[in-house]
Amino acid sequence: MSSSGRDAALRVALKTFNAGQRVEVNDLAAVLGVNRVTIYRWLGNRDTILAEVVWGLGERTMRNAYAAAAGSGGTRIANAVSTFVRQTLGHAGMRYFLKNETETALRVLTRSEQSFQLRLVALVEELMTIEQDAGALNTGDLGVHDLAYLCVRVAESFVYTDAITGEPPDPDRAERALHYLLR
Q: What residue stretches are annotated with the QsdR TetR regulatory C-terminal domain (predicted)?
């Protein structure tokens, strides 16, 4: 596998996604002057490509949100995840993806075979462990992993509200719920 080819394909997919356009294997192949099989060999199927693109954005967004978050312990985690929700909902590519490719988005973002959600839970768990090791977070009997999972699920439920219940996404409700959970 060509690492430079894979990286170039991911850059094109990211640029397309960020522009609020549909990411297609045929289009990636055409831009890079290769065939579809090469794209599949480098990156996998369309869902896998989308999961990688969204994960790259999501990881950077969450790490930056945590670095900038005020407070410590549960407050800092709630602030970071709330910022993540706001920035996710504010991203043109994510808005397009969630609105125009709802079923694909939910599959890519929540199904374990695409690993986005698993990686996001692991990242929140990592950040919670930092707070716990600093003595600022006590997860009680729940444990760090389960609390991280709950935080991600709360965030998801307010990001995907439109697809789940038909209500508009509401980052303020997510923030209140996260602060309540992590108080």
A: 72-183
Q: For the chain, what is the total number of helices (H) and then of strands (E)?
A: 11, 0
Domain containing 160 equals: 46-181
The reply to whether 52 and 97 lie within a common domain is yes
Residue 36: phi and psi, rounded to 5, are -55, -40
The number of folded domains in the chain is 2
The token pair at 47 is 């869902």
pLDDT in tens, 24-76: 999 999 999 999 999 999 999 999 999 999 999 999 999 999 999 999 999 99
Domain match, 66 and 132 both: yes
pTM of the model: 0.93
| Tokens 């992993």, residue located | 145
Q: Which residues contact 36 (CB under 8 A, 6 or more apart)?
A: 25, 26, 29
Residues with Cβ within 8 Å of residue 40, at least 6 apart in sequence: 25
